[in-house]
């Protein structure tokens, strides 16, 4: 197991390095600079000082190695648009909101998706199965911004039960539901399909023949293997929702991290775009590494050597 983990950590570093390099190259091939969107033209002296301050006057090769050296020290550099603000400051201030919203949506997706998927598989072709699959299709088909607008109209504008913005834990209910809708439906369908396949396997039939009840066979044998596809999906899901959703955060007034990536692209703020890309990649690769380890624990047939 130790060798397996070390290999995954080495792969993690290699993948992040490739992503940093590719993103850096792509940003340096984009025409225009971070100050092209200024309403008034900058004087040559001011522009020269700004380029020197943010090391834009260096050659791409020297700037690349300088950035890699800072990244190795967990310094993601300054923002070109926000004065006296670094990418680390933005992440430190805004990421907790996005992470809390993402964690809640994952708990909703797992807490509802797995049980509903199991029940649908056990009640295949009955009304409960048809109802849950219909709900899953609706959640997959309806875009999250449409669902967000509908929830705001009903629970904020009409009923007045909730308010937009960060005004206590209740403010996260609607955005969490909006963000969790797609993944909840996906996990439900995935769990149902995996449970149907697992329940028809020989080892489950053998367990039932030995006298185990349906509940015992499900908990001890079927569910553990049926959750393997769900565990695989959790890695990219957690990384995706934890780093912020621009649409959901904008609709509900959540001061999260999602909007900074979009605004960074619009404003050609290369420091923010590159820093957040590294941050997202690190979370994604880390979650995939954790998923690999969990996969090996759930399925002993996977060889770690």
Quick summary:
74% of the residues lie in helices and 0% in strands. It has 305 residues and is mainly α.
Describe the structure.
The protein has 305 residues and is mainly alpha-helical. It contains 13 helices and no strands. Helix 7 packs across helix 9, helix 8 runs antiparallel to helix 9 and helix 11 packs across helix 12. The longest helix is centred in the middle third of the chain and has 36 residues. The radius of gyration is 24 Å and the shape is flat. The chain starts with a helix and ends in a 7-residue tail after the last helix. The model has no long low-confidence stretch (mean pLDDT 80).
**In what range is the share of β-strand residues?**
under 5%
Number of strand segments: 0
Largest sheet: none
Percentage of residues assigned to helices = over 70%
Spans where pLDDT lies below 50 across 5 or more residues: none
Describe the global form. flat
Overall radius of gyration:
24 Å
Q: What is the overall number of helices?
A: 13
């Amino acid at each position: 197991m130790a060798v397996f983990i070390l290999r995954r950590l080495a792969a993690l570093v290699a993948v992040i390095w490739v992503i940093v390099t590719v993103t850096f190259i792509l940003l340096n091939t984009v025409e225009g600079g971070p100050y092209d969107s200024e309403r008034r033209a900058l004087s040559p002296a001011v522009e020269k000082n700004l380029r020197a301050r943010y090391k834009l006057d260096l050659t791409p090769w020297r700037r690349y190695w300088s950035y890699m050296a800072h990244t190795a020290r967990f310094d993601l550099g300054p923002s070109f648009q926000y004065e006296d603000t670094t990418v680390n400051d933005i992440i430190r201030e805004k990421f907790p909101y996005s992470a809390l919203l993402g964690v809640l949506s994952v708990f909703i997706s797992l807490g509802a998706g797995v049980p509903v998927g199991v029940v649908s598989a056990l009640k295949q072709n009955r009304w409960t199965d048809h109802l849950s699959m219909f709900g899953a299709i609706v959640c997959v088909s309806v875009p999250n911004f449409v669902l967000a607008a509908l929830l705001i109209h009903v629970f904020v504008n009409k009923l007045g039960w909730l308010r937009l913005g960060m005004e206590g834990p209740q403010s996260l209910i609607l955005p969490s539901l909006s963000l969790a809708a797609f993944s909840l439906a996906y996990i439900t369908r995935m769990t149902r399909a995996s449970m149907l396949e697992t329940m028809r396997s020989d080892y489950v039939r053998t367990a039932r023949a030995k006298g185990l009840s349906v509940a015992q066979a499900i908990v001890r044998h079927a569910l553990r293997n049926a959750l393997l596809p769900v565990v695989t999906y959790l890695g990219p899901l957690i990384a995706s929702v934890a780093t912020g959703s621009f649409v959901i955060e904008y609709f509900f007034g959540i001061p999260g991290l999602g909007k900074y990536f979009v605004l960074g692209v619009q404003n050609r703020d290369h420091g923010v775009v590159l820093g957040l890309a590294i941050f997202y990649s690190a979370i994604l690769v880390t979650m995939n590494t954790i998923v690999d380890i969990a996969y090996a624990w759930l399925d002993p047939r996977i060889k770690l050597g």
